[in-house]
Task: inverse folding
């Protein structure tokens, strides 16, 4: 029995759509496309919708394996290099990474800020140095717990608000690549660095 894409409940079939294609990981030099005519289903909560495909995320033209590979490469390489390697449009890399990140957040649950003892903060630029992103990493668990567009004191203030309002100030170690911002920020907010 098929499942609803939104709520993942078992639902009744409605009809079948035409053939759709999903891009999968390449086999050698050949592109691999999965073709399937997905059924539509009737959900009590969401009405008529396309059934869930186990190999693809909702509203995606790529398979889960392809998207995960793209997101992994994007962690270590610029978007333009990833788009050339995966043979896809560079504008599609961002939405693919967003879908993978949303799935990871859903799997990990609401525990990203549960008791971090040591965090690292890094500012990185993208798009030839014109845009910045600040990333906070939990050193103990080895994962990203917060990201924000921008850099400097304003972003540091946002980070401190998050930790102060969430009572997450029990940190043993705090590292920052741009140390002058941290020194100013720590003095203003009285966090021991």
Result:
């Amino acid at each position: 029995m098929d499942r609803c894409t939104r709520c993942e409940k078992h639902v009744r079939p409605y009809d079948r759509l035409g053939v759709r294609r999903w891009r999968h990981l390449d086999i050698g030099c050949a592109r691999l496309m999965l073709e399937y005519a997905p059924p539509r289903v009737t959900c009590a909560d969401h009405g008529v919708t396309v059934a869930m495909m186990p190999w693809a995320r909702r509203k995606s033209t790529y398979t889960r394996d392809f998207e995960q590979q793209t997101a992994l490469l994007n962690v270590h390489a610029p978007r333009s290099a990833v788009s050339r390697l995966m043979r896809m449009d560079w504008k599609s890399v961002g939405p693919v990474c967003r879908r993978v990140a949303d799935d990871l957040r859903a799997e990990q649950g609401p525990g990203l800020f549960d008791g971090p003892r040591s965090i690292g903060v890094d500012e990185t630029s993208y798009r030839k140095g014109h845009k910045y992103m600040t990333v906070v990493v939990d050193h103990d668990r080895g994962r990203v717990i917060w990201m924000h567009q921008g850099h400097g004191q304003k972003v540091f203030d946002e980070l401190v608000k998050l930790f102060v309002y969430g009572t997450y100030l029990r940190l043993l170690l705090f590292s920052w690549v741009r140390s002058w911002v941290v020194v100013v920020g720590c003095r203003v907010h009285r966090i021991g660095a």
Remarks:
- The chain has five helices and nine strands.
- The first strand starts at residue 12 and ends at 16.
- The chain has a mean pLDDT of 78.
- Helices lie at 64-76, 79-86, 90-108, 153-165, 179-189.
